[in-house]
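Consider the following assembly input.
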Amino acid sequence: MGDRSYCVRVRSDQYPLWVGKRPLLRRLDIELTERCNNACIHCYINRPEADRPAMERELASPVLKGILDEAASLGCLSVKFTGGEPLLREDFEDLYLHARGLGLKVCLFTNATRLTPHVADLFARVPPLEKIEVSIYGAREESYEGVTRVRGSFQAAMRGIGLLLERKVPFVVKSAVLPPNRGELEELEKWAAGLPWMDRPVSWVSGFDLRARRDSEARNEDLRAFRLNGRDTMAILSRDAGSYLKDMKAFGAKFMRPPGKRLLTCGAGNGTACVDAYGSLQPCLLLRHPASVYDLKKGSLKRAMEEFFPELRLKEVANPDYLKRCARCFIKSLCEQCPAKSWMEHGTLDTPVDYPCEIAHFQAADLGLLRSGEKGWEVDDWESRVRSLWERPG
Amino acid sequence: MSQRVELNGVYAPSDDIVARVIEGELIIVPIKAGVGDLEDELFTLNETGRAIWDKLDGRRSLKDIASSLAGEFDAPEDEIEQDVLGLAGELFDRRIIVEVRKG
């Protein structure tokens, strides 16, 4: 003995908490409900608030608490409560306090419209320990409600945000680029920059997925129209030019290479998982293909993390088109192509999705990684191109 | 160092925190506001702190803990007492432990 500093303050996202073996489950996302009180034009998970069949199928409180208990026993430190709109659950407070009482941090995804003084007081008294993420769809009532299609939702969201601000409950805002708000992105960013905990710019979603649990061709036509083209996507990504280039250089050095034949090239199912509203465990929020989903009503979280997901992560791609393109593409990490996207767009796990491919190629060309008309899977000297990005001044 | 912890006092982990051992690491997770200053703040203890923490059970005084540790580590008791008071003071100031009985 002899040390004089005993108690170390750490932030879990910045401190290597585990030097040796990491916990089997580090983070668990839970969709508390698929129901939402908004009806956003782009959303794929917004069953009506009063959807009784959906409500009756949702996991009951004791089952969710059991899942939280098991997650904590596996070393989980953080859970995300998402939806739909998680605050629609009448047992939200009970579930929240149960999670926090287990020593779990809670990240809440919400539209803030159902935040009441009581719930805001709860967050002030028992802090979630992760910033709440609030989806905001416009800087003004007209644009906001042009997205949500619910009259009064803008005022309700601003009221909810006001409650968090009054009680100094940390939160950030995020958004989606959609026709009703496209003309006021700067205005929304300027407003967001004034919020105390916005330590980075607003995160914008712009590449909407077709099909995604609903097979309405009319809806898909709308979503195709909402998608930004390459130029407009780049305008958003590179709006802080200096920071963008710095991020891309670091990203390129770390991730840009042909991914090979492995089906899952991300971290899905490796220490993280997602429970849908009805008890299916997925490797990530979006991947719901039957072959990649584990039924928690028939098995345990432990078994899924120890056996089912590791086996899934060993699977290789079979689709020849994918093997010709994506498996050999050095800009694959720029591309949102993944089994989840393939599942949503094509109903398979390994079919190339054209839209993210187009955007990634546009971005790569803009960064000088590709010449006009070149495809990322046709480039032999990709290492020198990535190096030249890294060596660019700035 | 906190002036409020006493060698003959008895202290225990607060109900406002959860102490979790995950893959061998002790991680103290605040539950209530006022423990920790930042929104994503957890606490870990160094090796000395962990040895002391394991004995903070709400029954033994800090002096008893120091005496026990001095025997285990074959170290001078007055030095161990300084470590015990140091850790207890830090933890008390952060509201991670509470006083069960005064010295």
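The first strand of chain A starts at residue 7 and ends at 11. Ask yourself how this observation constrains the way the partners meet.
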